[in-house]
């Protein structure tokens, strides 16, 4: 327990974690030369790696929490926002995409993202089908010599891929073709998500070394999903009746429940990204409280001032905005800085979805871009600000604020460009082959009956 | 016999039902409806998208009574449902030709 | 932390855990002679037992997760599937049965299942009222010398008894008499569940030593519940209007929420059954992801192919099927083998509930047997297959696949016979004394009003 | 791991924890003189403080569980009980109060409750804005030399402040003015909650040294909230139509879901209050099962006997009653004693809300006083009984039962008086300045539309 | 043409619909309503607060048929919806002056 | 006065309401109903159990207007609600004998 109080729990985009990931404790024979070298370079070989069961317990429950964010969390958050006739379609999309991405992750996703290949763009297929991974395999954490079971690390990472994919569907909710969506997602995680994860998080990755800060995946998860969502909803086109029919959420109750579950689960997402149960995780935890609280209050106050009434949809929008914004900053900001970050992101997203979006005149049904994209970008760049000691941050990485802001902007930009172009191509391909959108009649009748043969409620 | 259809404010339902019972009404059908009229609806805003909700919730009563009771029913509803605010509702009276009680097969006034 | 990376987290039906359970660390005076001998035999007395707080944290949260599976998980999964007028009856049954079994478990259940009596059929009443258990009492895990607080072990086991009992009620939903159900459950856990748990899990138990593999209780929980359900719904008879009235689920939304909560909680059930937070738990965790995902996809694809549309009820049915099937195999299979196991169980259950069941012409309202029974049996036998190294399993126990299959079949058979006969007798007794079924009028009006004097919704 | 089996996990109202709280492990320079002295007095300076990651994992998940109790737990429990037209108002109040109290807690709440000032009434403002707290700061537990990260301790305590504030709103549900409520809560936590927490829990606190037993905050949380609720609903007045209109719960389903989530989360509340993952937490856990189960059964049986039918609202009322009652006793009672405690509290609350309350003729919409107040008081006093060895308790503190009962009564009395008077004054002030209650027309139309501009359901 | 309005027990809906189809009815409107009549409601108790629920759930049918079919419709509903227990429902017959099928513009008997 | 009852497709409601407002209709009652007619329902399958759902969701309008406006109302509904697909709906016209505005006590045409 000697390292108990050492600095830990902090990370850098693409930092040492994944470089030393394949540092097997027992099963050295299965590690590749590259991995062995990396491990040797980073963890003094004389020190035996130790697994602390407290870390394992924390990472397992964190993994469960991220699943909880998706099912039922995100499914309900999204489902409550659509009209009754499309409720099940959102629940189905969330459920089946999660299942699909889990299977893909095991078959080739993990290998592509975190495999041993020395490429700058992907991890290769050496770990496809999780070959070589056993219950004795260990993955490194951010503290040298501290490891966790690789199966736990894989499970945790897998849930991130799932939630990113599910986030996208909110943009073209109420009109997407179910089968086409599944094909698109299978392609998208393969062509966009795994490579981006590799480029950003693996020591061999292209973006590795830029020194951008991203504690829990604001870029890979939220900006990625936000951009894919934006491109998607523009391509798919507006809903029939958009701007004319009343498309009010069919159950703000369920949306609030889903948002609450997102908050609850997000502690696994953010504090779990610390990979260890220590003070660093505690910092990520309290920031996940305070940034979110600040964002809720700002949205509520803005609505009270500008419209005279604070709405539930406003409060939960603020909530998600704060959570997204603090994701990259969770382990770097101080608790008060996090309040400010959440508040600023909330104000920006409020302004965007209630005004800018309408001028741009596209139909992002559930504001995936307006919330996740906008707050993701504010959060990514704002991380450089709140990380600064002047804002109470821990000054991770040690760069001056201005320099760090520039690094963050570059990281955001490359993600937007890569994800934007690749998503566009994939949507186009799927659209040509099978069509992305259901028939107008089916859209009118609702996807629940026409795509799934059921109704959400038979009261 | 007469069919009296009335649209009233939902929170007046219980009061009206009691008043009608007092004057001898022994049955009615109640439906929750959306009313459209001079009482204006409201505007809902969802993340900046405004929806005008033109309908206000109302309760619709249908009561079939003998011709002799009809006027008293109309009068009772009118006075009980009244709040003097816009949207208090309307009462319509129609002719009914025939009435049957399913259980007994009794007809017309006996069926009510 | 020397044993940190040792093989651990694996278990055998009735293996060493319960043999060494009463190996008190401090309070040797309270252990019986038998227990002391066993403890001496299995844990070298020279080595002091250690409790790792990481294990304690993991087992406590696992216990909470299993409660979450029942309330609100299973309650919602079941409740959503019935008609509005019977919603509360399902919620009530789930709630009150849980409360009832908790009290019974403390009073005599734990003792009957895990007490010190040297009988092959029960644990005796020596630990009735948890006598002798204090917050210093420790229970053994699967690793020699590693212990957890006995109160935590009791709590964890208690939730298993609760969920098994609640699972049964789906079979005769919408027509059972509330009071009679409670009496039946009190008898059933006493006469069926505790003895079966003892026979299967205790070192003195009858079935102990057969060498059957059951990681997290597929046999004791799912087959047991499935059989009791089947017998029950046949005895109680079909619902009024069965096959004629529209009995569509009143809220597929809530059913989906409940199913998601089952998945989330099942990580406590499966990975918690490892009793330690280590790589073995990690394996159980990832399999609980992959088998479930595989099962969801198979059911969805089957429906798409055979009916043109994938339904939400199909997706969640697949989900539960996969979870049930992987329960006995969670710590033995490889992640890819688990996908296959989940997929096969899903196809079998699909075939059963959509075709076989209708030919057999009984009314198992919520397909407790069709899902839990069928997938439980497939899972129990399939465990022998996916445990095999040829399927990527860890080859626990070391038997050849054929031999292991035979052992598994024997284990399943004895459970079916014992549970079937005992359940039948208990139903008959309760039926004679107080009647199992409500009056037809009450059934028509719905159990919510007639049994509980309330309605689920007053919108 | 030498202290593994030592007595631990037990606490006394205002005991050693908070005295030694500022015992920084590394960062001694930031501790005040007072704190340093206290730390020196209580933890042998020669022993280095150790942080066990198992404790950290447990405290982090416990914190998450308490948030889950509020959002969506308590929000749904309360929301389901009101009429459709007021659903969102309850969800909003829960959400925004939580956000508000989080921000206040970080800004001045933590400092006022647990700061370093040597006052008997508050902790001063030395830790306002969490100044001086870093991710390396450690807080003491109940075991000398065992520490957890202070950010985790703050987060955990923060959720207690949030839930206490949210509990109050049930009393004047369906008629309170949203803005006025927020102002009241901001004042109330500042003037009532933080000082009471300090007086009760800090070693300098006024009530410190009385020797009252309160394991997880029955007094500070439940009695405090219950009294503030009672005063509030009397001042605000009855709902329009009270006693005449049908005010039946709009969704007993959601209320049951919320109650279940309360139970699930309460393990974080109670077993988390142990601050360590050990046998003491295990005892708190099993008691949180058994007391609740006993309370559910008693309420259900009473309704069956007195009304012929057991209702869902009855079962969940019993559930919450049991949870409240066991809160102060969780780590002291034996599992059977806890059943009795839960049962007695359930019977008392049943009697109160179904009979006494109607005679007193006030409108506590959701029976905050009838459930939390009454069961809180029974639990606080009953703790002295079930702690006694004659009842299977661990006899913490060592007082004779009679003496301990007297101490408990004094603790309850002072809380009632202080909270009652201060709440009254605060309500009056807010009422004078902005009015506590909405207009009658707005109340008729429902708060969702009139205060928040939305409807909960658009089915 | 006649408009036949009937309030029946909800679980009888499917049976009545089928019976009516047999005698040649080709359309109807079905509404879920709250019925008030001699069949008494029930009392709900929430933590000791008693609420008398005076309404029972009923289903209301509206069928427009040609004059010649009207009697058969009334008779069919009466016999099929009957359970001989209180609350079986009522049937009312009103005159309809005009009917139009939206899709085709056909009127009166052709529109039905 | 006339009572005009129309069953139309739900998504046409807003359009019809607007069109009616244009020609001078100042109030109506709207009910969500289950329609039965030549438009066939659909089949739902739950774990292999098939349920034929014979009803399709419709919206039912009730509008009371002066005799002079009745024809225009019927015509407006017919043209606006029309999609030329089966299930577009029906319009029925009945005689109303008496109308009262609750708030003011105005009667007949003045009450509308
Ligand atoms: N011409 C009409 N035909 C049918 N129902 C009507 C008509 N006019 C009004 N109503 C019903 O009466 C309700 C009240 O009418 P409204 O014009 O809002 O207020 P007021 O009755 O006070 O003038 C409406 O919501 C509607 O349900
Ligand atoms: N006078 C009436 N006008 C309109 N509807 C009525 C009338 N009387 C009864 N009903 C309807 O018929 C239903 C059954 O009537 P009820 O008096 O309860 O039983 P029964 O028809 O067996 O005498 C009621 O619930 C109500 O919906
Ligand atoms: N005879 C009838 N009486 C009352 N309502 C009818 C009648 N026939 C049809 N309807 C209503 O009109 C709707 C549309 O009728 P339908 O026969 O399906 O199509 P269409 O009007 O195109 O011929 C039905 O769903 C039903 O609500």
UniProtKB/TrEMBL annotation, chains B, E, F:
SUPFAM superfamilies: GlnB-like. Keywords: Nucleotide-binding, Phosphoprotein, Transcription, Transcription regulation. InterPro entries: N-reg_PII, N-reg_PII-like_a/b, N-reg_PII/ATP_PRibTrfase_C, N-reg_PII_CS, N-reg_PII_urydylation_site. One of its GO terms (biological process) is regulation of nitrogen utilization. One of its GO terms (cellular component) is cytosol. Gene3D superfamilies: 3.30.70.120. The modification O-UMP-tyrosine is found at residue 51. PROSITE patterns: PII_GLNB_CTER (PS00638), PII_GLNB_DOM (PS51343), PII_GLNB_UMP (PS00496). One of its GO terms (molecular function) is enzyme regulator activity. SMART domains: P-II. Belongs to the P(II) protein family. Homotrimer. This is Nitrogen regulatory protein P-II. It comes from Pseudotabrizicola alkalilacus.
């Amino acid at each position: 327990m000697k390292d108990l109080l050492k600095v830990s729990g902090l990370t850098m985009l693409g930092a040492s974690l994944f470089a030393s990931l394949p540092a097997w404790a027992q099963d050295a024979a299965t590690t590749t030369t590259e991995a062995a070298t990396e491990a040797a370079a980073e963890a003094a070989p004389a020190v035996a790696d130790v697994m602390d069961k407290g870390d394992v317990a924390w990472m397992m429950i964190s993994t469960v929490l991220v699943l909880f964010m998706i099912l039922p969390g995100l499914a309900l958050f999204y489902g409550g926002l659509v009209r009754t006739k499309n409720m099940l379609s959102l629940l189905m999309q969330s459920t089946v995409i999660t299942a699909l991405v889990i299977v893909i992750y095991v078959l080739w996703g993990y290998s592509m993202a975190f495999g041993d290949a020395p490429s700058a763009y992907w991890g290769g297929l050496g770990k496809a089908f999780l070959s070589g991974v056993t219950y004795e395999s260990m993955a490194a954490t951010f503290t040298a010599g501290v490891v966790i079971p690789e199966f736990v690390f894989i499970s945790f990472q897998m849930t991130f891929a799932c939630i990113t994919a599910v986030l996208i569907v909110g943009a073209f909710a109420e009109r997407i073709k179910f089968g086409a969506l599944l094909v698109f997602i299978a392609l998208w995680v393969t062509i966009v998500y795994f490579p981006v994860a590799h480029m950003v998080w693996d020591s061999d990755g292209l973006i590795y070394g830029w020194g951008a800060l991203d504690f829990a995946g604001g870029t890979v998860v939220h900006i990625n999903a936000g951009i894919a969502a934006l491109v998607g909803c523009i391509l798919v086109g507006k809903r029939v009746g958009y701007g004319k029919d009343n498309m009010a959420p069919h159950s703000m109750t369920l949306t609030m429940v889903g948002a609450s579950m997102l908050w609850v689960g997000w502690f696994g997402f953010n504090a779990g990204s610390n990979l260890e149960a220590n003070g660093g995780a505690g910092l990520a935890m309290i920031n996940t409280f305070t940034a979110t609280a600040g964002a809720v209050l700002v949205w509520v106050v803005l609505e009270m001032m500008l419209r005279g009434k604070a709405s539930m949809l406003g409060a939960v929008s603020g909530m998600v905005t704060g959570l997204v914004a603090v994701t990259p900053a969770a382990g770097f900001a101080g608790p008060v800085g996090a309040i400010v970050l959440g508040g600023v992101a909330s104000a920006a997203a409020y302004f965007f979805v209630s005004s800018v979006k309408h001028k741009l005149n596209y139909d992002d049904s559930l504001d995936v871009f307006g919330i996740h994209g906008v707050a993701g970008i504010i959060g990514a760049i704002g991380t450089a600000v709140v990380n600064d000691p002047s804002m109470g941050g821990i000054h991770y990485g040690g760069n001056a604020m201005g320099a760090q802001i520039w690094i963050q902007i570059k990281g955001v930009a490359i993600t937007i460009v890569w994800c934007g172009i690749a998503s566009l191509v994939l949507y186009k391909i799927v659209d040509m082959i099978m069509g992305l959108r259901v028939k107008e009649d089916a859209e009118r009748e609702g996807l629940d009956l026409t795509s799934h043969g059921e109704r959400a409620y038979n009261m | 016999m007469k069919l009296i259809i009335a649209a009233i404010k939902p929170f007046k339902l219980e009061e009206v039902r009691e008043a009608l019972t007092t004057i001898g009404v022994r049955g009615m059908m109640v439906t929750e409806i959306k009313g459209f009229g001079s009482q204006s609806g409201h505007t809902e805003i969802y993340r900046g998208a405004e929806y005008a909700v033109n309908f206000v919730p109302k309760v619709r009563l249908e009561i079939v009574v003998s011709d002799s009771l009809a006027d008293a029913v109309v009068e009772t509803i009118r006075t009980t449902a009244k709040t003097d605010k816009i949207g208090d509702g309307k009462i319509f009276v129609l002719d009914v030709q025939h009435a049957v009680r399913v259980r007994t097969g009794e007809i017309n006034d006996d069926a009510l």
